[in-house]
Amino acid sequence: MQTGDTSAVPAYPETPDSGQPPATRPVEPIVLRLAFTGTGSEYFRIWIVNTLLTIVTFGIYSAWAKVRTLQYFYRNTSLDGATFDYHGKPAAILKGRAIVFVLALAFQLAGKVSPMLAVVLALALAAVFPLLLVRSLRFRMANSSYRGLRFAFTGGDADAYKVFVLWPLLTVFTLGALAPLAHQRLKHYQHNHTRFGTAPFAFDASAGSFYGVYLRTFAMTIVVVLVAVVGGIALGAGAGSGRGAAVLAGLFGTIGIYVAVLAVGPYFNASLQNLVWNHTTLVPHGLRSEVNAGRLFYIFLTNMIGIALTLGLFLPFARVRSARYRVECMSLLARAPLDAFVAGQAESVGALGDAAADWYDIDIAL
């Protein structure tokens, strides 16, 4: 069933109390695809006004610009005929950015006054920053809704220190060897502590699957770089010996590195999106992502060309193209009508979403 199709009522799987024998009950969920209805020209008008006002106000308007941007993308994303919405207040975002600005300025000044003072302040920032990140996640979720029902993030502060401090430090100390594990723990923390109304999300991707994505991406990068370097050396040898050949070989090697980054970046992003969402559920529904790395690379490459040729003016069109493709590769595997699901959740939650949004009134622009 396509999003927004009201020509027929989908036949959802029977509930356990349907009276049907277990062997004859339907088990296949209904596939509801997400849709994105925004256009580049619409977003361009929002983007150009946001950019100009942000420049004129020396960055202060950026908080209002963020709210307008999120509202545009949320309200143009739909599922089963209903759209999402964003309710964040610009003042909360401005407050969060002011906190980050003051902390960054204090760190810069401390470094000029005394190296020891800078170290002490860095430790203080490490102690405070996870708390800010958690509150920012709570703010974003509490101000996101679908059919009038808010999302929520319930992650605790103790786990936040592990995810945002301990695992990144261990990644550095192991020279990146633990990066996939750190990434898996981050997604586990985010998704397992997010809910829609009172319905929890769940995440079950293993650390091994993250290592698979990282290792395949690393192997692709090495292969592309080696092919470019070998090709450069061969062309250099064909051009003769001497300094010119060495320069030519170095040039092709450098180009190979850039090509590797451009080529494997979309593959990495596509693989991660599919991995994360294909292992995420919203009780009792499943989620599915089918991003194609080749298609994502084409969008990424043509977006870069468009941005370069228009001196940046194609940027809002590029963002819409990327968002549309990523969103429309997502599906909800519905095991019950969403109307009944949302109504039941709303009755249980009541005004909890509004209260949470007021209590965690801070955003640091994650």
TrEMBL record:
Region of interest called Disordered, as start-end residue ranges on this chain: 1-24
Domain of life: Bacteria
Membrane-spanning segments: 44-65, 92-110, 116-139, 160-182, 213-235, 247-268, 296-318
Xref: InterPro entries: DUF898
Keywords in alphabetical order: Membrane, Transmembrane, Transmembrane helix
UniProt-recorded name of the protein: DUF898 domain-containing protein
Originating organism: Cupriavidus yeoncheonensis
Upper classification of the organism: Bacteria, Pseudomonadati, Pseudomonadota, Betaproteobacteria, Burkholderiales
